[in-house]
């Protein structure tokens, strides 16, 4: 069975676990480096990116996470997770993992009272529009040549895929619509195939 | 596009799970909290232990402090409004505060009615001591709960009591048959529909953090062990000998609350925690948890 890890340092871990299980895969909460060896793909959840980064450093997870990325296994970052994956963060000197070829801007839709839900059309996801929940959300300012833009909202990129990396500025784990998680599970099951 | 929906408001609190929210009184403390790994800061004029010491009426913080803190950090900023003070809450909302604590730490503006929090776009957190109180606040639209504990005492006993009480009552509701729920609703002063939702979910529909009396990393870990979704630390950090080390240690103990060797390691070099108070030394009028209902 496909096993997908959820980085469990802080944030919406439980919701991702539920969503992975609803998609028919096995979910594991990853708190320590050695757990990375037993999973086929990894979700970096929503939460506070500064907090997660500090805990990544404290527990020596940075190099193991980069090695996991280098192994070619798929990774999916949602909101704070996208910020962790991004190759560049606008206004900051250094990225975190820096593995996905996108530039992101933090809190780019405003403060909490400007947080919102909106319906999106997502390339590769058929059927009804996808209701996305944006909370103090980042957005993708620009995407590299090998990065495919999968959804935009008001002309801002909010979902993109760069090979094995999937990143979105909203929270798929907060709704009952599991189609995006299922999309990621498919990426994990057949990483070479562009869906 | 919709703002201020339940999903957006409750979701914001979900993102704080497993984290520590720290009380700060200026930009410098806020930056220290952010660097230590706090998931949010609570901007205040005085921490609860000072409010207790100095007495008088405790109101919404000086807005210059709130503004200063908001521009100092990129993590969410919370602020407290008095129970029932519609205008303080609206003012904080207009400033763009990310979360409002309708807090018993401040002197209540209304001893009968809490805010109708569902009318606001900004989300709220409220204190509770039992499931009835939790349900009433959810009914009014709070998006996040916390134990009341006994703020500013550095004594964890009341937060433990409140967390155990709420979780025990949830277990009871979950195991009840449906025809017993209405009587339970009457006894708790909670809505039947909400109890039904709790029974079906197996938990509260919003997160419940620990607050009020957390003074050490072990206290924070204990509250996580008892089922808290995260921790508020008020006076504990900046009233300790070494706030920076203390803040980091509390964050680590909260993340790895069952890793006792780690808690031992981070607790060793901390110096003295804030001096605690025996709850029984407080008269009933001096107990902040008695405020609100």
From TrEMBL, chain A:
PROSITE patterns: GATASE_TYPE_1 (PS51273), PDXT_SNO_1 (PS01236), PDXT_SNO_2 (PS51130)
A Pfam family matched in the record: SNO
Active site per UniProt: 79 (nucleophile), 171 (charge relay system), 173 (charge relay system)
Subunit relationships: In the presence of PdxS, forms a dodecamer of heterodimers. Only shows activity in the heterodimer.
Protein name from the UniProt record: Pyridoxal 5'-phosphate synthase subunit PdxT
MF GO annotations: glutaminase activity; pyridoxal 5'-phosphate synthase (glutamine hydrolysing) activity
E.C. numbers: 4.3.3.6, 3.5.1.2
Entry-linked Gene3D superfamilies: 3.40.50.880
Originating organism: Jeotgalibacillus terrae
From TrEMBL, chain B:
Domain PdxS/SNZ N-terminal positions: 6-211
NCBIfam families per the UniProt record, alphabetical: PRK04180.1, pyridoxal 5'-phosphate synthase lyase subunit PdxS
Pathway participation: Cofactor biosynthesis; pyridoxal 5'-phosphate biosynthesis
Active site: 80 (schiff-base intermediate with d-ribose 5-phosphate)
Reactions that this protein is recorded to catalyse: aldehydo-D-ribose 5-phosphate + D-glyceraldehyde 3-phosphate + L-glutamine = pyridoxal 5'-phosphate + L-glutamate + phosphate + 3 H2O + H(+)
Function, as annotated: Catalyzes the formation of pyridoxal 5'-phosphate from ribose 5-phosphate (RBP), glyceraldehyde 3-phosphate (G3P) and ammonia. The ammonia is provided by the PdxT subunit. Can also use ribulose 5-phosphate and dihydroxyacetone phosphate as substrates, resulting from enzyme-catalyzed isomerization of RBP and G3P, respectively.
InterPro entries, per database record: Aldolase_TIM, PdxS/SNZ, PdxS/SNZ_N, RibuloseP-bd_barrel
Gene3D superfamilies: Aldolase class I
Organism: Jeotgalibacillus alimentarius
Entry protein name: Pyridoxal 5'-phosphate synthase subunit PdxS
Lineage top rank: taxon: Bacteria
SUPFAM superfamilies listed in its UniProt record: Ribulose-phoshate binding barrel
